[in-house]
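Run log, item B.
One chain of 123 residues. Sequence copied directly from the ordering sheet:
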Amino acid sequence: MADINGIAKQFTDYYYNTFDTDRNGLAPLYRDHSMLTFENEPIQGTAAIVAKLAGLPFQTVKHEIASLDAQPAAADKASIMVLVTGKLLTGDESNPLSFSQAFHLVPEASGYYVYNDIFRLVY
């Protein structure tokens, strides 16, 4: 079995670094059948997902990961469920917001893509 914790860590490091520096750079992680639920708003497809993330109302953001859990998501392929919790600072805000985010990663060629992505702020 693949090292799912290592894959999940590598993925989340890349995802949040890219999110924090250039949200448009997340496009290669999604496919046209990928789905994002962002604060209860369903969005499908690479272009729509990237448009949503790039259009968020802040210029700067910094994610701080508090926890990362990963599990195999299917018996017949090496897909992975990843759950992340943490804090994020946006713009000039001084109070971080808590968040949780779940990813369903599906293998493709020599890597993984995001099939499902669910994001929630935690109040």
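Observations after the first pass:
- The mean pLDDT is 95.
- The longest strand covers residues 61-72.
Flagged for discussion on Thursday.
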